[in-house]
Design a protein that fits this description.
Layout (H helix, E strand, L loop, with lengths): L3 E7 L12 H6 L8 E9 L8 E5 L2 E8 L1 H20 L10 H18 L8 E5 L6 H7 L5 E5 L7 H4 L5 H8 L4 E4 L2 H15 L8 E4 L2 E7 L6 H11 L3 H10 L3 E8 L6 H14 L7 E8 L6 H21 L7 E4 L5 H10 L2 E4 L8 H9 L7 E5 L12 E3 L4 H13 L2 H17 L2 H13 L15
Parallel strand pairs: 1-2, 1-5, 2-4, 5-6, 6-7, 7-9, 10-11, 10-13, 11-12, 13-14, 14-15
Antiparallel strand pairs: 3-4, 8-9
Helix pairs in contact: 2-3, 3-4, 8-12, 8-13, 9-12, 10-11, 10-14
The site of adenosine-5'-diphosphate-glucose has 21 residues, from strand 10, strand 11 and helix 13.
Length: 468
């Protein structure tokens, strides 16, 4: 295989690793062999914008980044990607804020990504583009004459046609998908929704393997669920559960147990319904008061958007209400912190917890569910409560599956989980653990790249558009 070129909106630079290392960097770690290139936004805003490409090298991998101008940051990233596409792809039409200028900014930044990437490319590079910020990137690269194999993976859900077409310019955006050779989704449901959009909008039917042809380009649409390095995470959890942070947390709980939630502070994660469910739980099942405390670690995210600011205020209110109602002078039912915690510390906390609550209203996959399973003590594992609307629910069927909109159902599941005998916990956990150790991050990369490698190279052709 030729050199791997990964393109994502935000490049996790080696200098920034640590508490912030996100799912993507971890998932791609095995695929990024020495010699690979990772290209994308530096995370910086500057007057120069994409004019200069910054190069860093670490452990044989080259990191090439561009800046965005303040205006591009707002139109491309804040407004269109996160203010229109993100809510759309999470079924939240009421939150979609579309402005034509922002869409123009989105298309323009994708064009600039293509122009900045072009001089770095070699003829046999295999290009793997990630996520909703960069849907039109292949179309822009093709317009510049790039004939390399190009794949795209969407980390969010995909929506059925009736929702997708609520987005102005949806047909244009959908058409840009068709310049990729391989398109990957986490689940069969998302793939079906995407192919339904293709059929309804472009009148094209795919074959049973998810192949279709659009204007001479053959596209393969695959299901490739993302995973984690479950063995590695399990080892970290075991070590961290004996460390300082875990000991301090354990001491603070006294004789009580711990239930945990770990999420970015995002409206898709179902935190309002979850917090309401915790209130219901302590109200309906008073025997659990003092016996368990709930810890929510919610890393602040996208704070410059109104929807996120409103979410935070609402959560502050519910936490105050719940704690005011049920706290004792020496026991707090709901502990809530709005910042990131180091991965090792989190792994140790997962292992301490008798229950994890992963209840997003919609989620592409949700890696926290897999991390929680990987972190458990095989002899005395905890119970996973999982939303039926997380992609992970298609795989992790032995979790306690709940409707995240139904606070009573979540409260009941908390009671069931905390009362479950160890035999049943072990049985469920064994099945879940087999799945998370089989569908790993390494397998995710191998499956995707194998599909991309099978694509025939296209004949070289001249650029349709000169670089401005
Ligand atoms: P996210 O929406 O970011 O990812 P998720 O899959 O849960 O959601 O991954 C988050 C990662 O960040 C996990 O590794 C988690 O441990 C970590 N994390 C979360 N909150 C944290 C905190 N407070 N402190 C420290 N670490 C924290 C997107 C999609 C998901 C999809 C992933 C990967 O929205 O559906 O699973 O990409 O494809």
């Amino acid at each position: 295989m030729g050199r791997l070129v990964v393109v994502s909106n935000r490049v996790p630079l080696p200098s920034e690793r640590g508490a912030k290392a996100g799912g993507l960097a971890v998932a791609l770690a095995d695929a990024l062999q020495p010699g690979s290139l990772w290209f994308g936004w530096s995370g910086r805003r500057s007057a120069r914008g994409s004019g200069t490409t910054h190069i860093q090298r670490s452990e044989g991998v080259t990191y090439a980044t561009i800046d965005l101008t303040e205006a591009e940051y707002h139109s491309f990233y804040v407004n269109f990607s996160n203010g229109a596409l993100w809510p759309l792809l999470h079924f939240r039409l009421g939150l979609v804020d579309f402005r034509t200028d922002d869409y123009g900014g989105y298309r323009s930044v994708n064009r600039q990504y293509a122009a900045a990437l072009l001089p770095l490319l070699r003829p046999d590079d295999v290009i793997w583009v990630h996520d909703y910020h960069l849907i039109p990137l292949a179309a822009e690269l093709r317009a510049l004459g790039v004939t390399n194999r190009i794949g795209f993976f969407l980390h969010t859900p995909f929506v059925p046609p009736t929702i997708f077409h609520a987005l102005p310019r949806s047909t244009e955006l959908l058409t840009t998908f068709c310049s990729y050779d391989v398109i990957g989704f986490h689940t069969r449901t998302y793939r079906t929704a995407f192919l339904d959009c293709i059929t309804e909008t472009l009148g094209i039917h795919s074959d049973p393997d998810g192949r279709f042809v659009w204007r001479g380009n053959s596209v393969r649409v695959i299901v490739d669920p993302i995973g984690i390095d479950a063995e590695g995470f399990g080892d970290r959890a075991r070590d961290a559960s004996r460390g300082n942070d875990a000991r301090m947390l354990r001491d603070s709980l006294g004789k009580g147990g711990l239930a945990i939630g770990v999420d970015r502070l995002d409206y898709s994660k179902g935190l309002i319904n979850r917090f309401e469910a915790i209130g219901r739980f302590f109200g309906t099942y008073p025997q659990h008061r003092r016996q368990v405390s709930f810890l929510q670690v919610a890393a602040r995210s996208r704070e410059d958007q109104g929807a996120y600011q409103r979410l935070r205020r609402e959560l502050d209110r519910i936490v105050g209400d719940t704690n005011g109602r049920y706290s004792e002078f020496d026991w707090t039912p709901l502990r809530y912190m709005t910042r990131a915690v180091k991965r090792d510390t989190l792994a140790g906390f997962f292992r301490l917890s008798r229950l994890a609550m992963v209840t997003p209203l919609r989620d592409g996959m949700n890696l926290v569910a897999k991390e929680y399973v990987a972190a458990q003590d095989p002899g005395d594992p905890g119970v996973l409560i999982l939303s039926r609307f997380a992609g992970a629910a298609e795989e992790l069927t032995e979790a306690l599956i709940v409707n995240p909109y139904d606070s009573d159902e979540i409260a009941d599941a908390m009671h069931v989980g905390l009362s479950m005998e160890v035999e049943e916990r072990r049985e469920r956990w064994n099945a879940l653990h087999t799945k998370v150790t089989t569908n790993t991050a390494e397998r995710f990369c191998t499956v995707f790249l194998n599909h991309l490698q099978q694509v025939e190279m296209k004949p070289a052709r001249p650029a349709l558009r000169a670089i401005s």
